[in-house]
Amino acid sequence: MYAIVECGGRQYRAEEGHTFVVEKLPQEVGEQITLDRVLLITNGENVSVGQPTVAGASVKATVVKQFKGKKIFVWKYKPKKRYRRRQGHRQLYTTLRIDEIVAG
C-alpha cells in the first residue's frame, strides 16, 4: 500500500515504514504530523485518485531529523569591473518516517 502526498509544493511517494526528505517543517524531532493532501492512494488492486485530493485520506508521519543540506555557492561577476561576490547557502530539510496510511 502506498500513497502520493503533497508537502511543501512537491509530491512524494509514501509507504509505511519508509522515510523521505522534505523542506523544513516547523515541528520538533519526535513529533507526529498528519499530511492530509493525499493525491492518490492504492493498496495493490484498488486505486483512488483525488480530484484534486482523496476525501478523508491522510498519512501519519513522525519527524525523524532536522538538518542542513550541502552548501551551495552563488557567484556574481561583472567582467572588467573588478566586481566579484560569492555567497553560500545551506537549505534546511526535515526527514519524515511514514507510520500509517489512512484511507478515506
SSE map:
Layout: E1 2-7, E2 10-15, E3 19-23, E4 32-35, E5 38-42, E6 47-49, E7 58-68, E8 72-78, E9 83-89, E10 92-102
Antiparallel strand pairs: 1-2, 1-5, 3-10, 4-7, 5-6, 7-10, 8-9
Verbal overview:
With 104 residues, the chain is an all-beta fold. The protein has one domain. The strands form three sheets. It has a four-stranded antiparallel β-sheet, with no helix packed on it. The model has no long low-confidence stretch (mean pLDDT 94).
What's the number of domains? 1
| H/E element sequence | EEEEEEEEEE
Mean pLDDT: 94
Query: Runs with pLDDT <50, length 5+?
Result: none
Biggest sheet character: 4 strands, antiparallel
Please report which band the strand proportion falls in: under 5%, 5-15%, 15-25%, 25-35%, 35-45% or over 45%: over 45%
Helix content: under 10%
**Count of helical regions:** 0
User: What is Rg?
Assistant: 19 Å
The strand count comes to 10
| Protein structure class | mainly beta
Shape: elongated
The end-to-end distance, rounded to whole angstroms, is: 14 Å
Walk across the major sheet and give the strand order: 2-1-5-6
